[in-house]
Amino acid sequence: xxxxxxxxxxxxxxxxxxxxxxxxxxxxxxxxxxxxxxxxxxxxxxxxxxxxxxxxxxxxxxxxxxxxxxxxxxxxxxxxxxxxxxxxxxxxxxxxxxxxxxxxxxxxxxxxxxxxxxxxxxxxxxxxxxxxxxxxxxxxxxxxxxxxxxxxxxxxxxxxxxxxxxxxxxxxxxxxxxxxxxxxxxxxxxxxxxxxxxxxxxxxxxxxxxxxxxxxxxxxxxxxxxxxxxxxxxxxxxxxxxxxxxxxxxxxxxxxxxxxxxxxxxxxxxxxxxxxxxxxxxxxxxxxxxxxxxxxxxxxxxxxxxxxxxxxxxxxxxxxxxxxxxxxxxxxxxxxxxxxxxxxxxxxxxxxxxxxxxxxxxxxxxxxxxxxxxxxxxxxxxxxxxxxxxxxxxxxxxxxxxxxxxxxxxxxxxxxxxxxxxxxxxxxxxxxxxxxxxxxxxxxxxxxxxxxxxxxxxxxxxxxxxxxxxxxxxxxxxxxxxxxx
Length: 485
What we know:
Order of helices and strands: HHHHHHHHHHHEEEHHEEHHHHH
Mean pLDDT: 88
Shape: globular
CATH class of the domain at 5-221 and 413-474: Mainly Alpha
CATH topology of the domain at 5-221 and 413-474: Hypothetical protein af1432
């Protein structure tokens, strides 16, 4: 499954020790500033709200753990004992690295930077992850004394297989907005920047020589599934803890929320070659949610019969070896108490989320590509995929798009655009950046490269850093000048 070419690097090195090249890559990433800064970037709720809620760093750690577990699962269930196993260090690396490129304030920060960079290659979180790993991090130089304007950076100088593990989208982002597809005019395009196109070509050549298939390595597929599982489960748990909702409340959301969820689930299923379905209805969203939470209510949907007694009062009869009959009020109280307990009892929440993850991993499937093992297929069986997609998109529609979070996000988008315009919009705005970024800016001569440098600087900010920087530009009571950038 792994070749000598997989372990090669853009800049050749002679590092030989007791660790595999992929374990060395993992170590380089763990010790990088970009990884540390993830602790200051929002996952679902702003970090200042509570120490309980996940941030991008803790989310990445959870994705890495789930990625590694999926690797273990595939190695034990699907790969013969004499065949080469999936490298678990690579699975873990991909999970740790996958969100490095997220700018401050999440997707709103991404939109802001993309709007600023539309005519200079755009901005997108996954593309920025590749750029951080291959250029921005200060580990290795390709050229010690470069001529002015020459690209000299090699980032962490990772192995080609490690770089492949984070290439989620085999798509070069258009350099200018006129080249974008009509559907991509008003949002960030998934893919990689033109500045990294040559490197991506080299990665493909080394990892999947001769292949004409859409490029996505087996470790990247594992990470992608792990990210969906973590997103659908742990963001849900944060919502419970925050008191934003509880399971019973899911069934009282407006119909348009369920329709939006169904539309996104249907779109995901249609794109999945392993799913037979290409549509999903709003009514099915409630059915799936009921099935997911049925264990906490202690009855299944098919166990219920609805009756009217001689006084025409509604009651529910519970089937399945039960002779007990209960009035609707009793059932509602039972369901409400169980629902409330899940949101308030940490033991129940922990057991519930663990079970969700275990069931999702049990739904993982693997198909070996004998001609090119690096491109073997990893996917979720249809039933499991539907559950993960419903939870993921329901969390997005009910929480991320809620007014309480949208207000915070709107402010973040405004902050990011204001900072960009302050630096790029005046002749010597580049002097507002720290010294190392000033040097990079001055090294390059092309306007697009200089705007990319500004974009890199802002994208690397934590939420708090961005707010402080904005405060220095606009606030009547800015931070002290003695606090360094």
